[in-house]
Amino acid sequence: MNPLFLIRNLSKVFPNGNTALDCLNLEITESQCLLVAGSNGSGKTILMRILAGLVDASGGELLFRGEPLAKALGKAGNFRQELGIVFQDADSQFVGETVEEDVSFGPSNLALDKEEVEARTREALTKTGLWEKRTFPPRRLSGGEKRRLAIAGVLAMHCRIIIMDEPFANLDWPGVVQVLRGIEALKAEGKTLIILTHELEKVLALGDRLVILDRGRIRDSGKPEEVLDRLRPEYGIRDPRRSYSTVEDCSWLD
Ligand SMILES: Nc1ncnc2c1ncn2[C@@H]1O[C@H](COP(=O)(O)OP(=O)(O)O)[C@@H](O)[C@H]1O
Ligand SMILES: [Mg+2]
Hints:
Elements: E1 5-13, E2 19-28, E3 33-37, H1 44-51, E4 59-64, E5 67-68, H2 69-74, H3 78-82, E6 83-86, H4 99-108, H5 114-127, H6 143-156, E7 161-165, H7 173-188, E8 192-197, E9 209-214, E10 217-222, H8 224-229
Parallel strand pairs: 3-8, 3-9, 6-7, 7-8
Antiparallel strand pairs: 1-2, 1-4, 4-5, 9-10
The chain binds adenosine-5'-diphosphate and magnesium ion.
């Protein structure tokens, strides 16, 4: 069976000569929680944008279920509906005047009937614990709630693949815990999760696979435990097991 994403010799060079991604090779399997760890500037956001079809790579190959991503993108919106993105800056993602309106925006563009849009919106808001806040303007939410709202939007679209770029950035402890609960729920539903973060200590326990990105290169990938055993200081990633004894303990969930 074809992997969900097959990345071969993928590179991204900007017009100013910056090489953001350098010859990446990676397979992303369906229903897996993939953690991509890398320090600032390692290329996480660029990789996310290329996987989502928002930016073109400069070279290499990117196959989605065995066919070039460009082809998948051309197919009447399937790919766009299947893949959801939770951007680092959640504020830039909101379009509704209220929480409820924001979540219903995506499904209401899918030619679904009104009842279905309402049912999806209700379900997504309940799952993310935002039902109570449905009449609030998004800007009045806390950081954790905003990121959960972004997750609710993706849920209401029934996306099967979700990419999260730095989902813990600028969140306090309760906010991180809220987002982790959301990630847990998505995992339980068998979604494919791609989480890009430099904060491994918050999420490691939820990852099935770990990739280390450093200065645009994949330095290692595999089972989290094994990758961490091989971790080198120059990658700029801290081994969270230094503060938490085992991989299973590395989460801000109790
Ligand atoms: N538009 C751009 N032009 C030139 N270089 C860029 C551009 N966008 C990002 N970069 C560079 O690409 C590299 C990777 O950036 P990014 O993917 O944002 O890293 P991360 O998300 O891991 O912090 C960085 O060195 C950054 O400076
Ligand atoms: Mg980034």
